[in-house]
Amino acid sequence: MRTRTSGVIVAENGERTIDKQYKGHRIFERLGRVSQDDAEAKLRQHQARVDAQQQEDQRGADQLFRVAAGKYLLECQANKVRTVETIADHIVLLNHWVGDLPLRAVCNDSFQAFKLDRLAGRTAGGQPARAVKPATVNRALEVARTVLNRAARVWRTRDGKAWLGSAPLIELLDETVTSRPPRPISWSEQHKLFPHLPGHLERMALFSVNTGARDENVCGLRWEWERHVPDVKRSVFLVPSEEFKTARPYVLVLNDVAWRIVQLQRGKHPDYVFVYRREREVHHDREPKMPYRRIDTMNNTGFQTARREAGLPQVRVHDLRHTYGQRLRAAGVSKEDRAVLMGHVIEDMPEHYATATIARLIELANSVSETADQTTILRVVNG
After folding, report:
1. Does pTM top 0.85 for this prediction?
2. pLDDT tens digit string along 174-204?
3. More confident residue, 376 or 292
4. Where are the transmembrane segments (predicted)?
5. What share of the chain is helix, strand, coil (3-state, %, to 5)?
6. What CA–CA distance (Å, rounded) separates 263 from 124?
7. CA 273 to CA 265: how far, in whole Å?
8. Torsions phi, psi of 95, nearest 5?
9. Helix spans in the chain (H)
10. 251: which strand partners?
């Protein structure tokens, strides 16, 4: 027979038993002939032990989100993750909204203000900021997901306890609302845009539109990746897996235009192919000259100013890669060869190529300069 307290049962002979489910644990004990008050006190002792054990199990969750995010960033740096700088930027932003929350308190609702503020162009303090698209917000949320998953599944305290009991579900935003289809540029648009670019950016843009290389691979292209192919009197660049989006080595094939650009860059910097230096505004005759440095992204003020001056504000840096792919297709290059030239992952794709293959790929890459300007027509046909 049940009593006034859930979980305390009294039999016909007056003996009491505790039988209760509490926070996922079953508490069971036969107490014999004891009073109701004694039985309730015994139940409270059992519940207190369960509470203490759960607190011990979740002790790692007392860490703040910013501590866990910092730990993840250090791991990325130690593992030389290709996108570590981008991850760091996302973490800095996330910390403004959820950095001071204990891990155990972080849930999907914790990021609601972050989502709304970023989309609306507000800082965590409500000040005006640059509004971003759902895709940008989602990249930060993916970093948060990774931090929480590692806290639950990988990281342990000194006595082997998980930092977090389980990782909460973090919902991403719908990117299809604002996603934009690929937009290759036409030859006429290229002739409008490129002259407005600063010299160093014009060379980088011309290199991208003739190789299909992504922004990060153009900016981060290293001389140590160069591999000379004597029989074709040219080099290729072997981009290592940790520096390429699909995490596999990529052979960057240079057509005649890209090769001439590489030759122009030689001797400027010991490590990076594409670099920039500010020229002296005064004392032009003085030494030393301003040092060259790596360019972080082509999508900088110079590029944005150039596209505005050219009347092409909708053109993005990534459109240069799409342009290369469209021109290869217009030149009749097969789907398989286009995949090789652009670094797409296909089944049984080799990581290195014979000299004859390199020569053929160079010939195919050169075909982009012979294509007719059909981009505008294709955009109209495709709607």
Report:
1. no
2. 988 766 788 899 999 999 999 999 999 999 9
3. 292
4. none
5. 50, 10, 40
6. 47
7. 6
8. -65, -25
9. 36-57, 65-78, 84-98, 112-120, 134-153, 187-193, 199-211, 215-219, 256-265, 301-309, 318-330, 335-342, 355-366, 375-381
10. 238
